[in-house]
TrEMBL record:
This is EpsG family protein. Keywords: Membrane, Transmembrane, Transmembrane helix. It comes from the Bacteria. The chain crosses the membrane at residues 40-60, 80-101, 113-131, 137-153, 158-173, 202-221, 241-259, 266-287. It comes from Kaistella jeonii.
Length: 313
């Protein structure tokens, strides 16, 4: 947790942000994140505005931070709000990583556990050259789902399943990438039970929860947009996006290299296969240079690479 706080603080206060400079003020942020696909990612947006409003009540001299901005309209108050929000969830994510690595299903030495968690922290921090309010919190919810899914696999009772459904509900209000939690659940449940009731029933309830929230928000907003345009051609022709694709490939191979055995490599491959809808949407409507899009896949994969289901009885 200290490592997460330290690394994220250096990322925000030691480098000038180029990529997200245009949304570092209240007006431009509100215009972007209350339209298109962004308008459905409401949870962290509310958190960010709450922090921004709270900072307004404090008499802070922002000159002490010696911040440098490329855009003259950038507000130190908004930038600090992003820092507080994302660092808070970064620290929480680090804590959940430790809890996951300390479960009996996670097979690694103490040194390997620390190094795997550290790689995850540095990957999250590095990806924040794109500053948004919902990414780091979405990683936290995904990791929290991973942890309680392992608990459910051991007990397989109604209460843990209900809690997983609540997590899906909350994380979908935050970002639609919560669908990756369904891919994770399907990967582990299918690997453990096969296509049986023990696998199909929980996936059904989790999927219904996701679908209800996903479409419910669109009904309430009377808008049904699922993307902000086709960027497929640019993702395979523009140099920066090709560099982003190289990141995807490199970090995918990395998870396979450090996986414990052939079985855990199979988990990683199955998870990516079940995540194809998310991956295809990233290439169709996302900007692949924004490597943050691969981070949830990466985090899940490095944990799957050390997860041993045979220890669950």
């Amino acid at each position: 947790m200290l490592l997460a706080f330290t690394v994220n603080s250096f990322i925000y206060f030691s480098f000038g942000n180029i990529y997200s400079s245009k949304i570092l003020n209240y007006t431009d942020f509100s215009q972007q994140f209350h339209s298109g696909i962004y308008q459905y990612r409401i949870l962290s947006g509310y958190f960010l505005i709450w922090i921004y409003d709270f900072l307004s009540t404090l008499n802070i001299d922002y000159k002490i931070f010696k911040l440098k901005f490329l855009d003259p309209n950038s507000e130190p108050q908004m930038y600090l709000s992003f820092y507080i929000l994302n660092t808070f969830f970064m620290v929480l994510s680090a804590a959940i990583l430790v809890f996951i690595t300390e479960t009996k299903n996670f097979v690694a030495t103490n040194a390997e556990k620390i190094l795997i968690s550290s790689v995850a922290i540095f990957a999250i921090a590095f990806s924040q050259f794109v500053i948004v309010p919902y990414d780091v919190s979405s990683y936290f919810f995904l990791l929290l789902f991973f942890y309680f899914l392992l608990q459910y696999l051991q007990k397989r009772s109604t209460l843990p399943l209900a809690f997983l459904m609540i997590l899906i509900l909350i994380s979908t209000l935050n970002r639609e990438s919560s669908a990756l939690s369904l891919s994770l659940a399907a990967t582990l449940l299918n690997s453990k039970f096969g296509l049986k009731k023990e696998m199909i029933q929980p996936i059904f309830f989790l999927a219904i929860t996701f679908i209800a929230v996903y479409f419910g928000m669109r009904f309430l907003n009377q808008s049904f947009s699922t993307n902000d345009g086709n960027l497929l051609a640019q993702n395979f022709t523009e140099p920066k996006n090709i560099l982003g694709l190289l990141f995807w490939i490199t970090f995918f191979i990395f998870t396979l290299i450090i996986a414990k055995d052939l079985q855990t490599k199979r988990y990683i491959l199955i998870f990516h296969l079940l995540s194809l809808p998310y991956i295809m949407m990233c290439f169709y409507t996302g900007i692949i240079y924004e490597i943050r899009l691969y981070i949830p896949l990466f985090l899940t994969s490095i944990l799957l690479g050390r997860t041993e289901l045979s220890r669950i009885h």
